[in-house]
Design a protein that fits this description.
Keywords: Coiled coil
Order of helices and strands: HHHHH
Number of strands: 0
Distance between the termini: 42 Å
Oligomer: single chain
Radius of gyration: 21 Å
Length: about 110
């Protein structure tokens, strides 16, 4: 079986917002500063596109500074949760383990 595929560009990636951003106190300030600093003239649609593009770039760098590699962190939290739950699969969890599990679940979600 031979499979050939062209690298197809489907357009821009969607603008995503992570829950951890909304919980951070500096998020609103970052958005407001970036949005007000970007002053563009011309057609409104183009100006909006550029503002969103610049905001996306700023939030990307802020996310790395503030939270590090979020995808790696999610994998790490999931691994810790799985380990904890597999260790307690055939017995009742201790109060300390329950507290740890709750903290891990909160950090994950």
């Amino acid at each position: 079986v031979l499979f050939k595929s062209k690298n197809v560009h489907w357009g821009a990636k969607p603008f995503r917002v992570l829950d951890c951003w909304l919980k951070d106190k500096s998020f609103g300030k970052i958005v407001k500063e970036c949005w007000t600093q970007t002053q563009l003239s011309g057609w409104g649609g183009l100006a909006l596109k550029e503002k969103i593009k610049r905001l996306k770039e700023r939030l990307k760098s802020w996310n790395k500074e503030q939270f590090g590699d979020t995808f790696k962190r999610v994998q790490q939290l999931e691994a810790e949760l799985n380990k904890l739950e597999s260790e307690a699969a055939d017995r009742q969890m201790t109060p300390q383990e329950i507290t740890i599990r709750k903290r891990l679940q909160q950090d994950l979600w």
